[in-house]
Amino acid sequence: MNDNTPDTAPEFHDRVVLITGGTSGMGLATARLLLDGGAHVVVTGRDEARLQRTAAQLAQASDGGARLLTVRADAASTADLDRLVSVVGDRHGRLDGVFANAGVGVFQPAAEVREEDFDHVVGVNFKGVFFTVQKSLPLLDASRGGASVVINASWTLHRGMAHAPVYAASKAAVHNLTRTLGSDLAGRGIRINSVSPGYIVTEMFRSVVPDPADREPLRAEVPLGRLGGAEDVAETVAFLLSPRSSYITGQDIGVDGGLVTVIPSVLNTSSTPAA
């Protein structure tokens, strides 16, 4: 190969991607990965100070902020989403991808859930996801050669969790939304997929399980033997947003180290009887 042969263009060069709830955790890791790949990224959050911190953290990856736009918006507010889409339309004129990542959790038994807790969780995790996609449709339709939406769901679809009835139910709703929107929007060239993270060490995870010693039993449930990182999810989201997944829609990918599909090996396999 000639030394003067140019490098392959970054996978996301000149693509425009919206990430809701992108000021920490999986959203922030995905923003960084896409920026490294050449994308223009729009990040939302509800707190202006956190948005400013995010802009500082991503300054180098975004060419001094030239490829990053931060917008204060609450995913549960349709008025905020209307304003967000207007800002993105004025800036870029289109969206090539959306990571509907914004989510909240209220972790308590059913008897302790208040109506305001229920409304908050369902408002962000389900209503927010639905209207994020709906409001983005004009910009996604304007995309070149189709567009991709990834919804952040959860492994909790597959197991009952005594202390998370509303959270788990809201995530089950968006699992189904992935399939129904995948069917509805396929004719418009828009692919809809979801990721279901397992035990991922993020700010939310640390707030629920603050003591590292309490995380060990959770780690022991994971066949791959470790808790996940935000980057593990970001890599999968990037794949689903990229042209490499152009024939995938209506699907969910578990990013959980085998948590819900594989039993950890606790016995000597050589002595385990075959079925």
TrEMBL record:
Coiled coil: none
Classification via PROSITE patterns: ADH_SHORT (PS00061)
Key word NAD present: yes
Gene3D superfamilies for this protein: NAD(P)-binding Rossmann-like Domain
Keywords: NAD, Oxidoreductase
CDD domains listed in its UniProt record: SDR_c
The Ketoreductase domain, residue ranges: 15-198
Cited InterPro entries: KR_dom (IPR057326), NAD(P)-bd_dom_sf (IPR036291), Sc_DH/Rdtase_CS (IPR020904), SDR_fam (IPR002347)
Family statement drawn from the similarity comment of this UniProt entry: Belongs to the short-chain dehydrogenases/reductases (SDR) family.
Listed name of the protein: SDR family oxidoreductase
Protein's organism: Streptomyces bambusae
